[in-house]
Write a structure and sequence with these properties.
This protein has one domain. It has helices spanning 2-17, 24-41, 45-66, 71-81, 85-93. The chain contains five helices and no strands. The longest helix is centred in the middle third of the chain and has 22 residues, at 45-66. It is mostly helical.
Length: 95
Amino acid sequence: MKKLILPVAAFSMLLLTSCGGTTVCGCADMGVEMMKEVMAANDDQTKLKEIEEKYKDESKACEKLYENKSDEERKKMQEELEKCDSFKEMQKSME
């Protein structure tokens, strides 16, 4: 289970830092909800595939928003992300 949580958390953090137009905090919220569901799935591969499918479109939207951004835009997105409650919640869960 722990083997799966860390990659999911890392992937979620990547997604979270990539959000912009959809709203940075919206992507952070999605990442936290996805992480909670993955943890609750207890390595059940069927449930994990369902979770992946459930969040597929939102994840792609967040990833796409990161594309073609300047370093300055990415920095602003990161600063905005760090203000999100869900980002703080994810940080605590990874400690």
